[in-house]
Amino acid sequence: MIASGNTANKSRKPIAVDLFCGCGGLTLGIKQAGFEVIGAVDNDRLSVVTYMANHPQVKVWHESIQNIDPEDMSSVLGLNNRKLDLLAGCPPCQGFSTIRTLNGALVVDDPRNDLLMEFLRFVKALKPSAVMLENVPGLAADQRFVQFCKQLKELGYWGEHRVLDAADYRVPQRRKRLIYMAGFGFDIPFASAVNRRLTVRKVMSNLPKAGKSGDSLHDIKEKRSVRIMNMIQKIPKDGGSRTDLSKEYWLECHKKCSGFKDVYGRMAWDDVAPTLTGGCFNPSKGRFLHPEEDRAITMREAALLQGFPKSYKFPVTTNKSAIALLIGNALPPPFIKAHAQSIRQALTGY
Q: Residue 215: CA atoms inside 13 Å, Cβ hemisphere, count?
């Protein structure tokens, strides 16, 4: 614990709780910044299984946050005797995402949006020294987020939000995210962007041959029809797109639609990857083809592009869609690490 009252105890790690923890990307980033994560919550079974395999020392509630009493959590975690330094989380963001709205609207009536208020309920009860919330940029336009920020200010938190690109923080992927940070009576500066971005080549070029590596996440086989494979083989290497082909090779559905030009596109070696989604195993969902090989990226490659280390464990399964959803919904650890370091420094000064 770093901050307790007005005295900083530098001999112990600051402690944190991760709400909506998913498979553990936020927890990993916070831990890499020097925090001890002591508690986490998520209601998705596969996410919790993955989380516990990588963070076995953390007390995890496999439960809907709406059913958890923060006072009970406080008692279990021993927060009655020590101050919680950081409460962090990413309420499920699908309800705020513009890709799910009609006619470009930024706000939809999705019950998951109300989980933002559950986050606020835990802030009020646990009274952490600092708060970190991460989400999609569309959250900023939602009135619930406006009320969230207003109520935190009334509680004494000095906060600010920005929309930043994770690629500027050592994540080899173009990913715009909203991040909100607040300190109880003190400011928290945002981390500075790095000068040089990590590229697809940097994180993927030295991997062993997919399918024969001995890493189950890298060896899950894929099946494509002869027609689709013929099209993929003709797409130019290193950043090529289906639009580079003559229309005789286009799928009928592509001839009828002028948008979604990244579909069946290849990643470029010396650029960052596009935004990874839960469909990143499927080239029909975006620019998810390998720069050179005639296949989609593997789930290990996807995890690396999200900023997870090679050693991070994921369930052994042939269900690519389930694993892709875990990875696509995860928070990139390097992005979280950069801003969590700023929080730790602010706590120490406070």
A: 17
Distances from the Cα of 272 to the Cαs of 110, 151, 167, 201, 260, in angstroms?
A: 32, 38, 7, 9, 19
**Top-tier CATH class for 3-193+331-349:** alpha beta
**Which token pair is 13?**
């790690």
**What is the pTM assigned to this prediction?**
0.89
Q: Write the CB contacts of 164 (distance below 8 Å, at least 6 apart in sequence).
A: 176, 177, 179, 190, 193, 335
Task: Answer for the pair 178, 201: CB distance below 8 angstroms, yes or no.
Answer: no
Q: Where are the domains of the chain?
A: 3-193+331-349
Alpha carbon distance 30, 27 (integer Å): 5
Are the CB atoms for 86 and 343 separated by under 8 Å?
A: yes
Q: What is the DSSP string of 65-133?
A: GGG--HHHHHHHHTTTSS---EEEE----GGG-GGGSSTT-S----GGGGHHHHHHHHHHHH--SEEEE
Q: Residue 232 is encoded by which pair of tokens?
A: 């993929």
pLDDT tens, per residue, the chain with 350 residues = 333 333 345 558 999 999 999 999 999 999 999 999 999 999 999 999 999 999 999 999 999 999 999 999 999 999 988 899 999 999 985 544 444 444 444 444 444 457 999 999 999 999 999 999 999 999 999 999 999 999 999 999 999 999 999 999 999 999 999 999 999 999 999 999 999 999 999 999 999 999 999 999 999 988 899 988 988 999 999 999 887 876 666 666 655 565 556 788 999 999 999 999 999 999 989 999 999 999 999 999 999 999 999 999 999 877 889 999 999 999 999 999 999 999 999 998 76
Apex 291 CA angle, 288 and 294, nearest 5: 80
Buried b (16+ CB within 10 A) or exposed e, 83-122: bbbbbbbbbbbebbbeeeeeeeeebbebeebebbebbbeb
Beta pairing partners, 214: none
List the end-to-end C-alpha distance of the chain, in Å, as a whole number: 13
Sign of the dihedral defined by the CA atoms of residues 37, 41, 42, 48, in that order: positive
Active site residues: 93
